[in-house]
UniProtKB/TrEMBL annotation:
Residue ranges crossing the lipid bilayer per the database entry: none
Protein name: 2Fe-2S iron-sulfur cluster-binding protein
Keyword Ribosomal protein: no
Keywords: 2Fe-2S, Iron, Iron-sulfur, Metal-binding
The organism of origin for this protein: Chryseobacterium ginsengisoli
Amino acid sequence: MSDINIKITDREGIVHDVVAPTDMSMNLMEIIRSYELAEEGTIGVCGGMAMCASCQVYVINDPGLEPMGDEEDAMLGEAFHVKENSRLGCQLHMAMAMEGLEVEIAPYP
């Protein structure tokens, strides 16, 4: 089993230390949902297709994320509450290089 440790600040400002598996093909949106860190129906509304930005997060510490793809960039171009460090959780697939990742869940919507 290959797990990484990440920190997720929820929409109430509470920081959660989370253990995330890298061997289950999960993305950050799914991790947030599995730990119930956002209200039901306010994250992953589109099912992780980069079409709604409900899983937007602000990256506080980037240990080595993959570059943003065109679909993610386009969706963030239309989203609310976007900052320079915004990413879509559904596009951040858990990998060993993400050990130490720190994010804050963006407001909805």
